[in-house]
Specification:
The chain is of the alpha/beta class. It is built from five helices and four strands; from the N terminus they run E-H-E-H-E-H-E-H-H. Helix content is 49%, strand content 17%.
Amino acid sequence: MGPRPPIRFAIVASRFNPEITQGLLEGARTYLAGQGAAVCDEDVIAASGAFELPLIAQSLARTGRYDGVICLGAVIKGETAHFEFISLATSVGLMNVSLATDTPMAFGVLTTYSDEQAAARSRGADNKGVEAARACLEQARVLRAIRARADVDRPERSGV
């Protein structure tokens, strides 16, 4: 068995609230590049909004090309219950995709009460895109180690 290919990630970023999601995207890409896991432009996919993230992430995971999918977006509370529905649907959707595909899904979706809170979390030291990328990289490494151990430790079944 030859050397393992480098870890590869896809990033799905919502186009809604672009001034926020661009900061998250830049943070995630910068972090991964610093860890030797740079993301190619072809592996960065735009989603209409946060609600659309799970379906695109699932499609990417099912290709088998990625060790993880980093999902970025921002849902900012307005005057209606829309915020609650979109936030919950997105988080549950991404968790279900992760479990169904055995692929880490990083939840880099801000759920804030104001534009100011979202801006603060999409830049500088508090950039949640960095945190999402870090979490996805850690999960991908853990899963690779578990799978490698399982391949080595798998007992041979004879006559069963």
